[in-house]
Fold this sequence. Notes:
Layout: H1 9-21, E1 26-33, E2 48-54, H2 59-64
Antiparallel strand pairs: 1-2
Amino acid sequence: DPSTPGLEPGEITIITDYYKRQGVVVSDTATAPKYEVVCMACSCPEGHTMFLRVREGDVAAMIGFGYRVESPPDND
């Protein structure tokens, strides 16, 4: 839904359940938009960056999955 960017609650559940089955506990999620402007046209770029908070002991596993250590931007 372009009017509410980010992940839907059901998508967050799918992601956290997947990593739980991999032995990784996701304790929090956040998203940040990739683009400044997103409109309702089909040709507009849409996307967001997903941030997952995990236990320190799970960081190596997440790096193995292709993630990198990074914090979401402040929304101030």
